[in-house]
């Protein structure tokens, strides 16, 4: 869970919070309880890499690109 700090506390403890962020612990600064910004270390990517996140959890059939071919052709009145 990400640490959330209100603006007043962030200003009061900025040095300590920046040190924590530099060590890899991101945090959120909120104003009146509403998250405003996320502070992350510079070497940490801001976007989560999503490509391949489900690798190994399912398989794609070899005929995937031909699945339902006959049904689709029938919908368009085509016959083989």
TrEMBL record:
Xref: SUPFAM superfamilies: YefM-like
Database matches in Pfam families: PhdYeFM_antitox (PF02604)
Highest taxon above the source species: Bacteria
Family: Belongs to the phD/YefM antitoxin family.
PANTHER family: ANTITOXIN VAPB49-RELATED-RELATED (PTHR35377), PREVENT-HOST-DEATH FAMILY PROTEIN (PTHR35377:SF4)
Function, as annotated: Antitoxin component of a type II toxin-antitoxin (TA) system.
Name this polypeptide is given: Antitoxin
Source organism of this protein record: Devosia lucknowensis
